[in-house]
């Protein structure tokens, strides 16, 4: 790692990890919506790929904030990162089960992803307590709250299937819940990226550990 200080640089790879994870998720989703209708075999494969992509983005989104905020606390940083990686692996293994790919478990899948995301509450609250007097940490905290609101709202549309269930057939091409869900996911990812930039700038200006 390069030195951490006011005039020195910090590692950029944690931010790149998140960007790769986010792009990977969106690529998996795009391929799924494009090719899943090809056949039953393709449908099963690509929806599993889509779930793996979502898990990838959730896990990688934890890397930059935890890495930079807890840079001076390597043991805590390791515990948090190891925990979310294990959580993500278990989620992928669970979602690869054919039975959980059925519409019956639509709500279960949504709430599992939501639980993964909201597990970040613990390190976020910890960071605020640890660096309460640091304004950038508070700013990033509110960014993350906004991100959580975007994700939760998107999941709400995904689970409720509003508006198409209120007027069947009217939203088959555009405006249905899954499209709205993706808009909120993208908004959440961009908000998280904004929080990451604030944290990176703060860490680069901190005194050496």
TrEMBL record:
GO terms for cellular component: membrane. InterPro entries: AdipoR/HlyIII-related (IPR004254). Keywords: Membrane, Metal-binding, Transmembrane, Transmembrane helix, Zinc. One of its GO terms (molecular function) is metal ion binding. The chain crosses the membrane at residues 16-37, 49-70, 76-98, 110-132, 138-159, 180-200. Pfam families: HlyIII. Its main location: membrane. Zn(2+) binds at residues 33, 178, 182. It is a multi-pass membrane protein. It is found in: Membrane. The keyword Membrane applies. GO terms for biological process: response to hormone; response to sucrose. Coiled coil: none annotated. This is Heptahelical transmembrane protein. It comes from Thalictrum thalictroides. The lineage of its organism: Eukaryota, Viridiplantae, Streptophyta, Embryophyta, Tracheophyta.
């Amino acid at each position: 790692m390069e030195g951490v200080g006011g005039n020195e640089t910090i590692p950029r790879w944690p931010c790149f990890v998140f960007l790769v994870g986010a792009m990977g998720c969106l690529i998996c989703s795009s391929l799924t919506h494009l090719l899943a209708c090809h056949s039953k075999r393709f449908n099963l494969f690509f929806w599993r790929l889509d779930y793996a992509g979502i898990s990838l983005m959730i896990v990688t989104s934890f890397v930059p904030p935890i890495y930079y905020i807890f840079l001076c606390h390597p043991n805590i940083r390791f515990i948090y990162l190891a925990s979310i990686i294990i959580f993500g692996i278990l989620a992928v293994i669970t979602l690869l089960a054919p039975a959980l790919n059925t519409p019956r478990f639509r709500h279960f899948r949504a709430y599992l992803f939501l639980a993964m995301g909201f597990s970040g509450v613990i390190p976020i609250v910890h960071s605020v307590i640890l660096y309460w007097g640091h304004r950038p940490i508070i700013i990033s905290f509110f960014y993350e709250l906004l991100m959580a609101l975007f994700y939760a709202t998107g999941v709400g549309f995904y689970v409720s299937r509003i508006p198409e269930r209120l007027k069947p057939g009217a939203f088959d091409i555009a405006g249905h819940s899954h499209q709205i869900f993706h808009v909120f996911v993208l908004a959440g990812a961009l908000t998280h990226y904004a929080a990451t930039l604030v944290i990176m700038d703060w860490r680069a200006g901190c005194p050496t550990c």
